[in-house]
Amino acid sequence: MSTTPLTPQEIQQYRAETRGTAKLIHFNNAGASLPPDVVVDTVVNYLQEEALWGGYETEAKYQPALDNTYDLIARLINARKEEVAIVESASVGWGLLFNGIGFKPGDEVITSEMEYVTNLMGFLNVQKNHGVVFKVVPNDEQGNFSLEALEGLISAKTKLIAVTHIPSTAGGMMPIVAIGKIARKHGVLYLVDACQSAGHIPVDVQEIGCDMLSVTGRKYLRAPRGTGFLFVRKEVQDSLKLILMDSASAEWVSETDFKPRPDARRFELYEKNRALTLGLGKAIEYALNIGVDRIWQRIQYLADTLRRKLSAINGVTVHDFGPEQCGIVTFSVEGFDAATIKSKLAERGVNVSIAKTISTPIYMNKNHLQSIVRASVHYYNTDEELDKLCEVLEAIKS
């Protein structure tokens, strides 16, 4: 993989290929990135062809490109094509996988205090309905995930380790490769929520050692909303129950029997938005052409620079932690709530988001945080845009 930094000329090219960068400063990439023009055009052109020629007819014309999306996903995460499925979002994919596990009373699920609220509700649901116990590995005194504590919680009843790689409301990251080694050592199923990871940092399911992984398209992949995909290791596919099925996800054998597809697309249904599927593929292709390792290098530079600049502003507190931090930068401004800061920045053409307690409740409650500002950078952001954010904050405080 190349580690050559993105050049100023390349960054300007990517900005020129993204209409939105000419209109505003977008630091809400952890919510939804600005898509490249080619992604938007791909979706719009497909919809126009559907309107002119018919949905099924247009699908037949573009079938090779639609199929190629699976190849692109496999290449992005170092998986086999038969191990990926396209879904509407990371939450849909995660839910299909998690709820497909055959939980029994007394089974245990282990997670972290950085887990996303939707996933936590999934744990609570199986706790209430199936008598499953879920355990939380607390962060250590430095705020980092404790691998030693994880190993200490594993028992003969441990059914699943499930973690979110990059949390919604903090700039740290979970050590998912090290967790994977522990999961394999103990023969425990391992599910990773990588909704903030793909297109942000290189993701290699072989290195991670996960059995299952869920991804959304709208965040760092710069794909349209309503897109996502999941990875299911071939060896575990038959062990998962199908929550939904149709004649595309399973084969009709007789009036008394059917059998699932022999690949991960058993977790899909036939009817989906083909235009968005093409848009997802085009977004992944765009990222691969740049190089996710180069994207990650650029994001680290921008995020580290922003944290340093924010920390130099009197009254601004940066809340991120961990030995390796990502493109999500969380902070608070003394004397102002997060909603006010977000609103005042928006008035000046700067998009940020609010990281709320509800998103990662265990972490936020433990650290007595209610809502903080989340500025999430991407490779198409610039140093000048970082300076503008800080200038606005200085003006707000003065």
Automatic annotation (TrEMBL):
GO terms for molecular function: transaminase activity. Pfam families: Aminotran_5 (PF00266). Residues 26-389 form the Aminotransferase class V domain. Its cofactor is pyridoxal 5'-phosphate. Keywords: Aminotransferase, Pyridoxal phosphate, Transferase. It comes from the Bacteria. Belongs to the class-V pyridoxal-phosphate-dependent aminotransferase family. This is Aminotransferase V.
